[in-house]
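Escalated from tier 1: 3-methyl-2-oxobutanoic acid holo job.
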Amino acid sequence: MKKVSVASLLKKKQEGQKFATLTAYDASFAKLFDDCGIDLILIGDSLGMVLQGESSTLPVTVEQVAYHTRCVASSTQRTMVVADMPFMSYATPEQTYENAAELMRAGANMVKMEGGEWLCETIQGLVDRGVPVCGHLGLTPQSVNVFGGFKIQGRGDAAARQLINSAMELEKAGIQLLVLECIPAPLAKRVARSLTIPVIGIGAGKDTDGQILVMQDMLGITAGYVPSFSKNYLAATGDIREAVKLYIDEVEQGLFPAAEQSFDE
Ligand code: KIV
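Tier 2 regenerated the structure:
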């Protein structure tokens, strides 16, 4: 079984083949997703909200992400494993290197960080030291207090231009994947077409190269608020494996997200 890599995701992008990814935080779900053919599992700091019941991702620590990364990495073979760098764990170069190393030692193949141009030096430093990086733009939940809530980003010409510039700068700095969260679908399409690297969307419309959902949202078991851009695949199938396979199928065919799970400009 060939492990999914940045190169294989890039090949999919180049061939116009869409790919499906999910978050997971434990060995049982991670193995099931791996077996079903999910290309990438993110140990997101969303774990603060969906596992710990917090109202934001801010309380999550590096130790917690490392613990869940170990659980996921030890039970998967094919899928790529990406671990989130939590809030304030990449504020200085020293902190960044130490914390990224902890997540890589726990089994991550890549780390993900939220932010624009201000992160470029940090990204270059990590890549130079052998740590692949995934960027994250749009609604970056660690900045919820700056945004004044979980709000759609990138609406209006100036915000859209800013987001496209940030994406291009991050790519130049060395990110190998980019997550776009909660932005208008036409903007996400422009970003995906402007970048060489694969772009993964959540609440960003159907024209990104890949899609990601928080696993609890796609299974309809989220305790709190369920975002409108998600879809309950368990309700449609009644079986977790079938739900994941249907999600993969709909992403690959360009059926998910549909217009009702997307935002306009
Ligand atoms: O923390 C997370 O799960 C994420 C995804 C929603 C992309 O960042």
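Residues 228 and 261 are 6 Å apart (CA to CA).
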